[in-house]
Amino acid sequence: MSDGELDIEKRWMVLARLDPQAFDRFYDKYCDAIYRYCLRRTLDHATAEDLTAETFLQAQRSLIRFRWQGVTFGAYLYRIAQNLVRMQARRLVREARLSNTETALADPRLNPLAQVVLTEEQQSVRTAVAQLEASTQEILLLHYWEGLTVPQIAAVVGMNPTTVKTRLRRGRLRVRKLLLGEDGDPATDDPAGADAKRRRDSA
Q1: Where are any strands of DSSP class E within 39-174?
Q2: Residue 80 belongs to domain with CATH number
Q3: CA distance 188 to 130
Q4: How many C-beta atoms surround the C-beta of residue 76 within 10 A?
């Protein structure tokens, strides 16, 4: 994100608060990205379309309360979409009478369409990521699937950038272990923990 891009969006915001039709600039810029995000999370085209429309509707209704955080308006849209996707997932879980309501990634077992739209490798990666805690899942998804920067992710998930960087690093290590079939504790940067693991393995 460049300062010029942020300045342009700030001008758009001024216009959008005066003229609702001016909000279309944000829609044209971010609609495809938000739709892809919703589709990756729900694996259902109709649901993704509904959630995308609701995301922009909520964003437009809350323009008067919006405050810049040093990142583009897209981060705000992702945050709204994230909340809507979570609400949708919880509804599905309740309907299926499942106990886990904190799923951050669409579970292929809950949606047969996943077997069609995901390759075998993609399914393996998603299964591995789904074993991480929800907040780390979301950070990995936003970074690697959506291409958001660390500052943008921080604005979406409400964490400071340093914490986001740490979650990214540890999440990558954990996913790599899971994909390689390695056992052990979640990835850590603590050498003492690594030494303890080696002692357990050699026992």
Answers
A1: none
A2: 1.20.140.160
A3: 18
A4: 22
- Judge whether 167 lies within some domain: yes
Whether residue 198 is contained in a domain is answered as no
Structural domain including 155 reads 3-190
Q: Give residue-wise pLDDT tens across range 129-173.
A: 878 888 888 888 888 878 888 988 998 888 889 999 998 988 888
Helix (H, G, I), strand (E, B) or coil at 122: helix
The three-state secondary structure class of 106 is coil
In angstroms, the CA 10 to CA 12 distance is 5
Answer yes or no: is 98 within a domain: yes
Tokens describing residue 198: 């080696």
| Cα-to-chain-centroid distance, residue 154 | 11
Tell me if 203 is assigned to some domain: no
Which residue carries 């303890």 as its tokens? 196
* CB-based contact 107:43 (threshold 8 Å): no
Token pair, residue 86, equals 């979570």
What is the number of residues in the chain?
A: 203
- State residue 202 phi and psi, 5-degree precision: -90, -10
Tokens of 188: 């850590």
pLDDT grade for 88, boundaries at 50, 70 and 90: confident
Backbone CA torsion sign across 146, 62, 51, 156: positive
Ramachandran quadrant class, 184 (left: phi over 0; alpha: psi -120 to 50; beta: rest): left
User: Could you tell me the pTM of the whole model?
Assistant: 0.64
The number of domains in the chain is 1
